[in-house]
């Protein structure tokens, strides 16, 4: 049976992907910081497949290493890695952006993805098999006003995806990225630090993507025949023409 590790499985895109993978009989290793959410999801999905949970913060290399060491036999079996944990913190003009927010985005979206991938890929290389899907963003393709550092971190994800594709080419490992536009998840609540009104207003007058729309695409990418890799996929709600151009007339 296939085994997938999903980071950021406690909400949004990661959770929807876990649910869809379980329906399709893919064993799961689910990761996140919120243990109660991991336990609830494990309970929900373990009637369908084997579900292991690992609680750690992707920004903390020691925590990532310890978590993987605690599940070594299963980590070695991973066929699919979904690098999804991440997010935006703040939305401010560069000269006013908060240092803690900037550090957190760099540490989570870039360094977290590097730590997780660096620890898992040696086993894929050994097996000469595996699929890595990095969740980037439309912000990884274009910058937009006030998106400065978030956008830079997602451009880095794009660059890392391409770099990994070169390095893993000799081993037949598939490396892909998916670049969603506006998806209504906890993303904006996190970006605006719990200001629900402001978070909701991001989706005013549009029909945004749902986490399930991205999960569908991830599953499609992960289930192609062995000679096919969908290397780069951008998905937008119909209302969105670019990171900035959004038709709010529904
Ligand atoms: P959510 O906020 O709903 O989910 C984010 C997930 O990341 C949570 O499960 C969270 O888990 C996890 N996470 C965040 N920080 C850490 C950390 N330091 N260590 C471990 N896990 C962490 O947002 P989305 O589902 O929308 O976001 C998923 C990915 O999709 C992100 O990389 C985001 O940048 C990207 N994306 C989102 C878009 C959108 O419009 N929503 C558009 C394009 C890309 P926990 O808090 O339990 O640790
Ligand atoms: C999230 C998409 O455009 O809100 O990555 O930054 S956007």
Radius of gyration: 17 Å
Q: Which structural category fits the helices and strands?
A: alpha/beta
Bound molecules: NADPH dihydro-nicotinamide-adenine-dinucleotide phosphate, 2-hydroxyethylsulfonic acid
Tally the beta strands. 7
- From the N-terminal CA to the C-terminal CA, the straight-line distance is 43 Å
| Number of distinct helices | 9
Report the β-strand fraction as a percent range.
Answer: 5-15%
Mean pLDDT: 98
> Biggest β-sheet: count, sense, barrel?
7 strands, parallel
Major β-sheet strand ordering: 3-2-1-4-5-6-7
In short:
This protein is 44% helix and 14% strand. It contains 9 helices and 7 strands, in the order E-H-E-H-E-H-H-E-H-E-H-E-H-H-H-E.
Which tags fit this structure?
alpha/beta; 250 residues; binds 2-hydroxyethylsulfonic acid; 14% strand; 9 helices; single chain; binds NADPH dihydro-nicotinamide-adenine-dinucleotide phosphate; 7-stranded parallel beta sheet; 44% helix
Describe the protein in words.
- With 250 residues, the chain is α/β, with parallel strands linked by helices.
- Helix content is 44%, strand content 14%.
- The protein has nine helices and seven strands; from the N terminus they run βαβαβααβαβαβαααβ.
- The protein has helices at residues 12-23, 35-45, 61-69, 72-75, 99-127, 148-168, 187-191, 196-201, 211-222; strands spanning 3-6, 27-32, 51-55, 80-83, 131-135, 174-180, 232-235.
- β2 (27-32), α2 and β3 form a beta-alpha-beta unit.
- It is globular and about 45 Å long.
- The termini are far apart.
- The model has no long low-confidence stretch (mean pLDDT 98).
- It binds NADPH dihydro-nicotinamide-adenine-dinucleotide phosphate and 2-hydroxyethylsulfonic acid.
- NADPH dihydro-nicotinamide-adenine-dinucleotide phosphate is lined by residues 7-14, 32-34, 37, 57-59, 84-87, 108, 112, 135, 137, 180, 182-183, 185-187, 190, 211.
